[in-house]
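User: I'll paste a sequence; please echo it back and then give the predicted structure.

Assistant: Echoing your sequence first, then the prediction.
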Amino acid sequence: MPTSQNTQIVLNERPKKGPITDITFKSKSVDLAEPKDGEVVLRVDYASVDPTMRGWIDEARSYLPPVQVGAVMRASGLGTVIASKAEGFKVGDLVIGLLNWQEYYVGPTENLRIVKTPEGGRDIDHLGLFGMTGMTAYVGLFEIGQLKDGDHVVISAAAGAVGLTATQIAIAHPNCKVTAIAGSKEKLDYLKRLGAHNVLNYKDADFKEQFQKVGLIDVYFDNVGGKILDMALAQLRPYARIIACGSISQYNATKPDPIYNYANVISMKATIRGFIVMDHAKSFTEGAAYLADLVKKGKMKAHYHVVEGLDSCVQALREMFEGNNLGKTVVKVSREASKDCKL
């Protein structure tokens, strides 16, 4: 193996309410272990940065147990096999799984998957468009939101990883009107070029008035929670569907925003449903084929916000909550990735 050390980013202490701080995480170096029977060593090429990570480091009950203090930060990643004692895995294979924020993964293969990048494709799409990001948008709109021809679809955080994919799916769906919400002129211009019918900046002083003018909503893809969710509840069409995907405006909040318009869910006979994409794995093959077809037709573009170096992971997570990313955020961990990973 090329090195005897493995740098990791571990949870140093649980954050109190509010944003993570300089002491939430710390970096440490450990000896790089040799693989045991049934194990592999992966060079981590790219590590994912996602809003849900903020919830993983709290002690609150959730769909996954919290990351323990002292443990390597949980994260999806894309890596290359550099040593193997596991059947079916050979040196050079490209692998996706929970590789965490570290330079190398050493461990079993039960939750790892070898991936093949099609001709003309990009390896990084396994973390984005054809990974959990794309599947979340696909499952959210079709299985949770029951998207129909002619729906008015409103998407918050529309320039984020999931939001950008969901926006393009809705634009491509027959006769749908799409209202995309983001927080900068750059993002709104990009969403407009993609074909969104209405683009709204939630930072504008008259955002509430702009939002009211877009009309009644059939499907609301909620990535932010809080005040924008409450505004959407006030404009539901009968039998509207609210896709509860994320709540990024609330993850760092010291005090949650109140919801005043909940009664509209009842009077408009609406459905609001949360989901965890991993529960819908049976739909991933179909979803990947659907998204690949949109790419082929020129109706889907994957956009990545790439930062370099393992030590950039924490800052990338911070900046995500400040709205600094356009598209899916990934950290290029390995210098070797530029040789092997098509970006």
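Residues 8 and 102 are 4 Å apart (CA to CA). The chain has two domains: 5-128+303-332, 132-297.
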